[in-house]
Amino acid sequence: MRQSRARLKLFLTAFLQICLVSVNTIFLAKHRPELVFLAAFGISYIWTLNVKRAAFGSELDKIVYALGAACGSLFGMYAAEWMI
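-> structure tokens emitted (84 positions)
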């Protein structure tokens, strides 16, 4: 159970980080500097939480991270279009 919770946290942090990357790309394209600033801060902060677990985790941890990132990318694309 403990490992499942850790993997869920890994998935969610990857989801959020890459979601912010997706929305930031759209904010850059739409020239929204205030939103770019906020998203970039979030990306960098979350990266500091993820880097060790993603780089030194098991193969399954890396797959969970990648799935979270893929889902976050799609969600971020649609969320940014909805926000702007």
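The chain is about 90% helix and 0% strand.
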